[in-house]
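Our collaborator T.R. sent over the components below with a one-line note: 'Predict the complex.' Nothing else. No constraints on interfaces, no templates requested, no preferences about which chain binds where. So this is a plain run: every listed entity goes in together, and whatever single assembly comes back becomes the starting point for the next discussion.
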Amino acid sequence: MKLILKIALGIIAAVGGFLDIGDLVFNTQAGALYRYDLLWAVLLGTIGIAVYAEMSGRVAAVNQRPVFDVIRMRLGFGPGLIALIASSLVNVLTVAAELGGLAIVLQLLFDAPFSLFVVLAVIGLVIAVALLPFGGIERLFGYGGLLMLVFVVTAIHQQPDWGAVAHGFVPSLSDSKLYLYFVVGVFAAALMPYEVHFYSSGAVEEGWTKDNLKENRLNAIIGYALGGTLACALVIVSGYLFHPLGVEPNDLGTVALPAQGAFGETGLLLALGGMMFCVGGAAIDASFAAAYNLAQFLGWEWGRYRGPKKAPRFTLSWLVFLFLAMLIVLSGINPVEITEYSVVFAVVALPMTYLPILLIAGDRSFMGEHVNGWFSRLLGWAYFAVIVVLAVAAIPLLLMTNGGGG
Amino acid sequence: MSGGDEIFLAHRLLDEQILDSEGRRCGRVDDIELKGTPPRVTALLVGEGLYPRRLPRRLARLARRLTGPERWGANTLRIPWQEVDRIEAAVHLRGKAEELGLGEGDDPGRWMVRRLPWN
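Returned assembly:
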């Protein structure tokens, strides 16, 4: 019974840590532009994050080594430093995007200026982190994020052409650069590296050992399956409602409209509430990820479980990253644009943090009997190939399509 | 060090996390001191003063501006091999970090740390 409860909590945390502003923006736009055609890219990205998270969770449980511990060990100081700088930039940009998203959602609920909500969002997150223990933070945003299930209910309620939906899961490429840009975007939004930095460090925060390997596997499979279902629902509801109308959703408010169309004001409030918890949780995850990475790379004391007194440099760097992100949003750049950049740059930086995990998870001298089996190895390397191709293609596509502007 | 199994220095010792006797994280193995013939590990070297050594020459110059030159006992510490208790998923030391001068950046007595609002 206790195990079931623990697994349920872990899964909720996985769901909460999966959907974020990147999925909201890219999946809704993908649905509006290409109806159900990009569902396969959502599925591909979701399996990717499950593979990556399972490996890094396993490494953390067996070795107590989170991602940037592994990177320092496997890449050494110089190349590891490049991975650290790239990841920090991407993570701060991601936090900025999430904060912007949080402020926009708040602005839809209450009437006040954008910049005020950005500052309030930061203060709210700092208070939540100061008051709650690590597990409490995960649970608050995980449970809240489950409000996003309203999008799954909306998708079913809309009664779309399920044959066409199923057909969307068959991979298809086209020579349209915009389509390819969205393939990269939807895939990358599902596979944001901060999720894995946070997940593996969280495993250490919660004192995982080899006894937690089953939990780790179930989190990766069931948690990300649920997260992927929510991500697919975003594409489906948008494809059903916006594609025939030719609407191109350029702001976050549009994301919630399908739920309002199906269930009126209740639907709208549930959707906005779910978005708020998802984006808020992601802001915490991504800012923690930035601080975890720095502290792990340099060998500092780190972790929410140590508390600010025992890990002052870690806590201070978390606040600094959050503050920098706040400055980026307050500079007036459109949060949707920040989101697109954060997602595209994330996939460019991804191979540097993915490869060391793949190498250590396959290294018997580190992992003993829990080393990658043939299936994990095959899947791991196949995804590495996919990630490298997308990382190379991402920036040219971003420039050629003018950031998805066509 | 107990255990006695062979390890590859660059693979398993260099860059490894260091924990003190109370499990406090207090730095990483930034370099290794070897002496004698055949060479033996005589000490672990720890501290930000060593970062420039680990970078290509041009970047090293830039890094040295940030870290300052290597000052032994300050930003560059020598941990004699006798202080190493065992090597598992991290390097475990026999003594406490503060006795060896490690992890000072997280030390509540330091002025910068003392001024943080939660201390």
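Summary for T.R.: The mean pLDDT of chain B is 88.
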